[in-house]
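User: Teach me something about this protein's shape.
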Amino acid sequence: MKKIGILIVMVCLSLAAMAQKDAQIKFDKITHNFGTFSEKNPVQECVFTFTNVGEKPLVINQAVASCGCTIPKYTKQPVMPGQKGEIKVTYNGAGKFAGHFKKTITVRTNGAVEVTRLYVEGDMTEK
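Assistant: First, the predicted structure itself:
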């Protein structure tokens, strides 16, 4: 009888631990449009802000851009539940053809949704 009671308590504790929500990233926006800018000023920057809406610390494992002309910099420290973090993205169009572009930043986390894609786009005009 004592063993059954211990087993029931262990099962209840396990279920309670599993019921806790993982870390979860929620971005304010996933797309940023730089609009139209000149080749004379080819470097453009934006910031994607996110919140950990889960119940465990959120860790960004990596943020990788689809092209070397786009560089993401992100919060390296764990983001606690309810707290905010950011990913700063720099696009450098120097040496690139003028016209419309759209780049992807793939963000990998320890969250319930492990992969999120962010997008930057714009139109660079000739000098």
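Now, about its shape. The longest strand covers residues 99-109. The radius of gyration is 21 Å. If you'd like, I can walk through any region in more detail.
User: That's plenty for now, thanks!
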